[in-house]
Design brief:
Length: about 325
């Protein structure tokens, strides 16, 4: 084995390497930070939870000389391989510590693990300090550098328009675009998220806000809506996950689904409540309208027909009138 360079390595009390990792992240030409996302840094595997999730705010970087190159040092890092992504967070994402993510394109030369679905940078600590420099969103060291960037610095707005979630106290869309943080796009962000070109998967969290401190465990406080297994909207149909997905390709985009289905919108549910007039009241006016339909002097609309078909047999007749009368008199 090659000897350690004791002049540049630090050892902890157990005799293992404890190096410093010095980040220099160039954000020129990226549009960040800005008034919506005013704090930037790096999130990575060194601060992963026991479940493997990366929390936000792993390391906040500073721009002390106002050149839009953000720097910071991760201290006492043990030997090993580490992945990370650049983030900018702010009021637009309720300071989640994720907000906008700037990473390499999946399978590009600086995608540390090209075998997985995530576009993450990475570095290896061996026996000395490590310097990490990137133009955020590319493989270049600085944003003024030439050559093949391996990425695209442009970010596009993806807007989620989801139906069938009226009973949720809070709704959040999370996926590969926010490293499954649980807070990717939600009501606080107007269901918008900034992303670079690439393929993304996601699911929908329907949060029960009656649970105390639900925000501390948004996953555990939620009913999760997946794409139907093996369906046309199961983005990777041959894996064990039933995730929705989409591809960003050089432009803003709108993603629309009825939660839990492949339809863009949910069909309205038929409620046989006797309200033929659709005025939110059931009274003699509804009976008159139904009678006129039966005798042929008028025709009920689809929604009025649905409300009037009290026994759900697909026809309107005297049986339905009797049911509406009983509803009015309280029987």
């Amino acid at each position: 084995l090659d000897p350690f360079d004791v002049a540049s390595a630090v050892f902890n009390s157990c005799g293992t390497v404890a190096a410093n990792v010095n980040f220099s992240i160039d954000l020129n030409d990226t549009g960040y930070p800005n008034s919506d996302y005013d704090q930037c840094g790096v999130n990575g595997s060194w601060c992963a939870t026991e479940s493997g999730d990366w929390p936000g705010w792993c390391l906040t970087l500073d721009d002390n000389n106002s050149d839009n190159v953000f720097t910071g040092t991760l201290e006492n890092v043990s030997a090993g391989d580490y992945e990370f992504i650049v983030f900018c967070s702010g009021a637009a994402d309720n300071y989640s510590g994720w907000g906008v993510q700037l990473g390499p394109v999946v399978s590009s030369e600086c995608d540390f693990d090209s075998s997985d679905e995530f576009g993450n940078y990475g570095f290896t600590v061996i026996d000395s300090d490590v310097d990490v420099s990137y133009c955020a969103g590319s493989c270049d060291e600085t944003c003024s550098g030439g050559g093949d960037s391996g990425g695209n610095n442009s970010n596009y707005t993806v807007t989620f328009d989801l139906d069938g979630l009226d009973d949720c106290g809070f709704v959040s869309v999370t996926g590969t675009f926010d490293n499954w943080s649980g807070w990717g796009a939600n009501a606080d962000t107007d269901f918008d998220a900034e992303m670079q070109d690439g393929d993304y998967e996601f699911i929908i969290l329907c949060v029960d806000t009656n649970i105390d401190s639900w925000w501390n465990d948004i996953w555990g406080s939620s009913t999760i809506y997946y794409a139907p297994e093996g369906s046309e909207c199961d983005f990777i149909s041959d894996d064990e996950n039933y995730n929705y997905g989409f591809t960003v390709s050089g432009d803003d985009m709108l993603v629309q689904y009825c939660a839990g289905s492949c339809d863009q919108t949910c069909e309205e549910q038929c409620v046989a409540d006797g309200d033929a007039t659709q005025d939110l009241n059931v009274n003699v006016s509804d009976i008159i309208l139904v009678v006129n339909h039966i005798i042929g002097s008028s025709t009920l609309s689809d929604s009025a027909f649905c409300s009037s078909d009290m026994n759900g047999d697909g026809t309107i007749n005297i049986t339905d009138i009797i049911a509406i009368v009983n509803l009015i008199i309280g029987l």
